[in-house]
């Protein structure tokens, strides 16, 4: 039966005992309100580990002043049932005071990979992500951690942090889980009414159109970006933050891509009050 742990010291003690028994521990960091995408991460962890720890923590430090921290969907009871079905052994569910003491002063900042895209439109977001993930790793003490590709830039940030700080945790990235019409699974999809839900499919259709351009020989980044913007602009109440093609390993944006490049197509846009992100990797 799944066990809930709410303090760092208890979690560390459990992990120390499991490690002494030579158990392989996997961590799946989430903000809760688990959907099929999250459950696919837990299932992947279950394949590779003896023990799976899922963290449920809506992290206030990665939300900006105009973000949706207060209304971010939460349902710990449902999350517990779904995580257990997917193969989770422990739920680490700390509160804010447990994770951030009254005199908390330390933040992890990455200088390059966070400059553009999400880093530009959500200042300070990745400082909050990097800091909380490092703290979760120190609490859970996993051998590896599993993240979803939907938050593509986040996966690069975490890989860079782990490398730079010599954190002994392997990072596994799992493909985005989608609805039948292509919309990426997201906890924030609950905000979409029926009309907006239908309009939201434009993101995946835009990515697929840009992918076809690349596979058909287009290499000029400006033209690929312009194609994505034109398609997205066909939805009147969609506001584009960015629609961009970049090299997948470092998010560099050359004027022209080369054969054999691996490219990531990235979109972030607001549909009404709901911000949506998606991406697609293309190997040319």
How do you describe this structure in short?
This protein is α/β, with parallel strands linked by helices. Helix 6 (125-140) crosses helix 7 and helix 9 runs antiparallel to helix 10. It contains ten helices and nine strands.
Structural description of this entry:
Helix 6 packs across helix 7 (152-164) and helix 9 runs antiparallel to helix 10. This protein has 284 residues and is an alpha/beta fold. The chain has helices at residues 8-20, 36-48, 76-86, 96-99, 118-121, 125-140, 152-164, 194-199, 202-215, 221-232; strands spanning 3-5, 25-30, 51-56, 90-92, 144-148, 170-174, 238-247, 262-271, 274-283. The chain contains ten helices and nine strands. The model has no long low-confidence stretch (mean pLDDT 97). The chain is globular and about 55 Å long. The protein has two domains: 3-174, Rossmann fold, CATH 3.40.50; 187-279, Pantoate-beta-alanine ligase, C-terminal domain (Pantoate--beta-alanine Ligase, Chain: A,domain 2), CATH 3.30.1300.
């Amino acid at each position: 039966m799944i066990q809930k742990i709410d303090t760092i010291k208890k979690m560390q003690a459990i992990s120390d005992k499991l490690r002494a028994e030579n158990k392989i521990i996997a961590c799946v960091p989430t903000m809760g309100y688990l959907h099929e995408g999250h459950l696919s991460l837990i299932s992947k962890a279950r394949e590779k580990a003896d023990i799976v720890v899922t963290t449920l923590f809506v992290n206030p430090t990665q939300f900006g002043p105009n973000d949706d921290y207060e209304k971010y969907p939460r349902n710990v009871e449902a999350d517990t049932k779904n995580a257990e079905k997917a193969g989770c052994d422990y739920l680490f569910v700390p509160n804010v005071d447990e994770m951030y003491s009254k005199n908390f002063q330390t933040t992890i900042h990455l200088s390059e990979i966070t400059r553009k895209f999400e880093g530009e439109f959500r200042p300070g977001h990745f400082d909050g992500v990097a800091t909380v993930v490092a703290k979760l790793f120190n609490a859970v003490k996993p051998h590896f951690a599993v993240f979803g590709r939907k938050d593509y830039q986040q996966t690069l940030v975490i890989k860079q942090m782990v490398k730079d700080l010599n954190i002994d945790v392997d990072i596994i990235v799992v493909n985005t889980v989608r609805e039948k019409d292509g919309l990426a699974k997201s906890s924030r999809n609950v905000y979409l009414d029926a009309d907006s839900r239908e309009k939201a499919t434009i993101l995946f259709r835009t990515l697929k159109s840009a992918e076809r351009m690349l596979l058909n020989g287009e290499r000029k980044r400006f033209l690929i970006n312009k194609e994505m913007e034109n398609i997205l602009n066909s939805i009147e109440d969609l506001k584009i933050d960015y629609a961009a093609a970049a090299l997948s390993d470092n998010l560099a944006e050359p004027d022209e891509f080369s054969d054999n490049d691996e490219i990531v197509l990235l979109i972030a846009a607001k549909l009404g009050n709901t911000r949506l992100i998606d991406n697609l990797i293309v190997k040319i």
